[in-house]
Amino acid sequence: MARRFEELHDRVRALSYAPGTDALRKITPLLLQAQELTATALGHLTALDNSAYTSLTGSRAGLEALSATVAGVSLACTDLAEALSANPYEGAPFDGHPADDAQVRAARHAEAIPRMNSHLKDAALQLDVGATACHYLATSITNCLPTAAPYQPHAARHQAVPRLNDTQHAALKALAQGGRAALRGARRGWSASSSRTVRASPSPPSGPWPSAAWSPRKPASPCSWAARSQSPSRDSAPWTSTALLLWPPWRQRPRPRHP
To answer: Are 127 and 56 within 8 A, CB to CB?
Structure first.
């Protein structure tokens, strides 16, 4: 609102006019704008008076300053209206009175111009005081309001995590590597135990056993023995396939070889 006061003040101070119709055409928009500004200031005064602002410390001075602003802009309207009233208008006189000649017209203009300028000067002064009062009022309202905590972004409201030093970083790295090593060791232990269970070689059978039929490197699996029995080598005895199909081999004694 202070900016509107300042703009209207500058327009009134920079006004140039000629008495008569030209003055009426140029002063009328200024008067209408001043009346709108009066209505705006009065609306703000009513809103503040009906708000919680009245319960704050120092609010009375703010309300009095705003009411003085309303009175000042109203006086500016009055001064603009007085300027229009002092303006010499051109028109026909009453019957029986002679019309004004150029000399009389010039005398009337010369008498009206100082009066009009005085009213315009008073209107500009009231507008200047109103703008200053608006600035003071805004400062007063800001000081009366309770101080609120400054807004912080969501990321800034969380406490920053401190950075790790070299010792802490080395300790965490060693723990991570130890965990992976323990996991690999556990997996190797499980794999080795499973391999020993499946691939364990049987102990040598008691009693006579052909050296060609027994080898500790051969897998102790019935499927493997059966596969070997289905495709015997040339130098194996004819009874080898029959004996190897019986599992475990030491429970069945092999038949003697016949020539």
So the answer is: no
